Each structure stands twice: as C-alpha cells, then as structure tokens.
Amino acid sequence: MERVSITYVGLAVCADAQLAESDAGGARIATQQPMPVGTELEISIGDSGDRRRARVTSVSEVREAGMRLAFVEATGHTPPPEAAPSAAVAGRAEAEPTDPKPKRKKKKSE
Fold it and tell me: What is the pLDDT of residue 106?
C-alpha cells in the first residue's frame, strides 16, 4: 500500500494514511481518522506527488477503518454536511427574504 497525505482546507489532517484501493473514479483510504461524508479533501499519493481533489462518499470505523473517496474536478472548499445549509433552506432564503418586523393582523371594528 502507498502512503497518502490528506489535506483539508489547506491543513494537513493525516500524513500516515494508506491507499488501500484506487481506480479512475476514486480510492479507498485506510486511516484511523476518517473525515465526515461529503467533505472535500486533497490527497497526495506516495512519492510521485500526484495530488487529487476528492470528496468523502462513505466511512468505515469498525472493520478496515477508513473512507471511500470519489475524485472531483471542482476546486475550493466544501464544508462538511453538518456545517452546510441544506439546498432547500438556501433556495428558500434567496426566494423569500425575511422581514425583520412581523406584520400584525388588524382587529375588526364593531
């Protein structure tokens, strides 16, 4: 197995992970410190210096601890799912701006 270095938002998070499997679409990384599903990482494989952007698609913490990654071409930071607003909430916030003062109903006169 080749050694893999993992970087998240420019910070080294794991320098001793092992490349367990790899294909054109992604890789499985053996590590005791897997990142949350949805996290975008940069991995450096072995001494070749091959650097790839990848997104965590699954995590195993029991047997053969590690994470499955899908290679991505996108650049930039993708926050972990629990930190990112849902698409439905983000879309609604743009479509329906909130009014800081709630409107009151008028009382009917007798």
Answer: 63
